[in-house]
């Protein structure tokens, strides 16, 4: 029997299935490794490439298709490696190029693909180009690789415009000329140690195409592109009434705030068309994923037109509040926008920049959440957040398209919400004048073994951020083989997702008896029926359902079961 044939049910097909076996990235589950916090083989308390290689078996057992590695390149680490000094070298903190090759080889043996991070909006201020730009005169080719401008006001003492850094504070810093007198200003949309490159300059474009080839030649399967919406700036460099620390989307519709001159400029797309050609010149199997915080789903989808990138994170989904109508709209609109350009939708709930979903969903206001949580801030309801995050994961894995897991999400790890200020390292913490706690709370090293020093993260027990003692209960070895654990839930979800080809599947909303009006999100993907209860109380499940996976315990007798609040199930119709 089909769900469509059951009484009192209305279904609306909004996304058609692809045939399974197409390009891998259309349906892949991709696991984000944040190298400094994954596994430390050397014992200095900072994760490294050999540590990752030694733990890749975990990812293959979990059942993911690919790994994305956050930056491991040479860097003074002012922004945890997103300040790159040499794009073709591994930072000694993380290992060597040979270690990178060994990681790629091990991943290949395990059948895992590997994406690496590309940071094209800015370099480190220790990059050879920026070092050459500082002593060079205004107007020189060395300075033309960055965005140097004369200041305003008497003696050029005021910044060229009012733009602010995403991390807080001004987006311009003044440099001294060779003779020591105050000179021009350079733009940095992020930290002062991250000067923005000038993408109007053909030399910059050519260099990044060469960097792409360098890593493609080493065998990587693609790139996650950092700040993909920021490379091209409006060349007027006019003042702007918005504040650049807001993501582009936050400014939409705000009165008196025109479009952001630094985000999502039409010119960025030419860059990605060229990169598409570079990747296509390999074996047609390499992919680019855009980190593009765009105003609308349509703007996001422009990054994944057939001749541009292959995936773009659907941040609208991540930022949507925990409500059935809101999630239904977000999913419907996200799929429609991606379908309109023939691209897959790329679902994500957590990453190294946002409060972990397990904690975010336990806050009174769900949605994007604050920029970090400190001991003095309102604390999340841990039990509620954990329950919702498990339900959200089952929702995400049942959706057609690709899905990302942030390291530790499979363990149900919460945010560290009580890190003391003196251990925090995110530049957003001090650049915001300590008003924003920043992102360290989601970057705490992983617990692998409940009884080992640093929970097995490092052989010496060192850990660059302290791990909460309660994390013993979250350690991988405390969850393995334990029915109902987060790890086993994720593993089973990924196995069933593969078995039913949900990643290339369809989506039809099921309304009628159940629906968003009742606080219930119900859809079918191929023959699987997915129900998520976002209401305040249990909802009876219709008869005739064979539940194959549940994010929490169901209530009642078999055949008369109820779905508790904040719980999700996958089911098939009984024969
Ligand atoms: C986005 C990255 O995900 C984030 O961690 C970084 O701070 C900024 N881009 C700047 O590179």
UniProtKB/TrEMBL annotation:
<dbReference type="Pfam" id="PF00128">
    <property type="entry name" value="Alpha-amylase"/>
</dbReference>
<dbReference type="GO" id="GO:0004556">
    <property type="term" value="F:alpha-amylase activity"/>
</dbReference>
<dbReference type="GO" id="GO:0008788">
    <property type="term" value="F:alpha,alpha-phosphotrehalase activity"/>
</dbReference>
<dbReference type="InterPro" id="IPR045857">
    <property type="entry name" value="O16G_dom_2"/>
</dbReference>
<dbReference type="InterPro" id="IPR017853">
    <property type="entry name" value="GH"/>
</dbReference>
<keyword id="KW-0326">Glycosidase</keyword>
<comment type="similarity">
    <text>Belongs to the glycosyl hydrolase 13 family.</text>
</comment>
<dbReference type="InterPro" id="IPR006047">
    <property type="entry name" value="GH13_cat_dom"/>
</dbReference>
<keyword id="KW-0378">Hydrolase</keyword>
<feature type="domain" description="Glycosyl hydrolase family 13 catalytic">
    <location>
        <begin position="32"/>
        <end position="443"/>
    </location>
</feature>
<dbReference type="GO" id="GO:0009313">
    <property type="term" value="P:oligosaccharide catabolic process"/>
</dbReference>
<protein>
    <submittedName>
        <fullName>Trehalose-6-phosphate hydrolase</fullName>
        <ecNumber>3.2.1.93</ecNumber>
    </submittedName>
</protein>
<keyword id="KW-0325">Glycoprotein</keyword>
